[in-house]
Amino acid sequence: MNIIIVGCGRVGTQLAMLFSQRGDDVVVIDRETSAFDSLGRNFEGRRLVGVGFDEDVLIEAGIEECDVLVAATNLDNTNLMISEVGRRLFAVPHVLARLYNPDRESAYMQLGLDFVCGTTLVAEEMYAKVVAGHSSHVDSFGDFEVLSFSLDLSTEFVEALHVSELERDHEVRIIAFERRETGQSSIPLPDSILHDGDIVLACVKADRINDFKRFMHGQGHGQSRNQERGKGGQARGKGSGQGGQSRG
Predict the structure, then answer these.
(1) pTM of this prediction?
(2) Scanning 15, 22, 85, 240, which has its CA 20 to 30 A from the CA of 98?
(3) Domains of the chain as residue ranges with CATH
(4) What is the mean pLDDT of each run of 10 residues along the chain (248 residues)?
């Protein structure tokens, strides 16, 4: 693709490097020559000093053959101007703007602008991780959370489970899994077998996550400690007995 990125700050730099490494034709525009220092020697695209919404600068950058225009400066108004010039004057197929102020999201939507708001994304991601209770949160979808985790069967005292058992008993859908030993990934059938330590991609209803956490490495043990505190040591004694039997 032919890609123009306006703004060579941290976001613009990383984006330019990603596209460049993929083999796309990338042009980065910034007002300051020194801004391009962050691109380093391995960047294979073009560097262009100028104002990102200036028509002549954009033409020099190749906007008439551009597939993607990214407005990634640190000013919302500048990014809006760049986006409108790219859309309305040059009919760039995909224009993407960086947005700092989440209060402007509705206005951008009404204008039909494609945008990314870092503040909203970070807040939503942190919220989702807290709700999921696990660091490998993938996405939220309505009342459901998509999680990726290493399967922990220690609380079940088994080394393997059928997918159908896990789904039936815990209202979860196993989307895919990867074998711990071979790294081979598969879309499961109901009779597929999951082993302790396999990497699992699962869709879990949000209100069932606390119960399901015991199947995630690093989560089940924490839940057991909470249960022990709540039961005044009764669970601890029982757990020790079971552990002793397993070791024997």
Answers:
(1) 0.57
(2) 22
(3) 2-119 (3.40.50.720), 126-217 (3.30.70.1450)
(4) 93 90 92 91 90 95 94 93 94 92 86 84 69 62 82 84 86 89 86 90 84 72 38 37 37
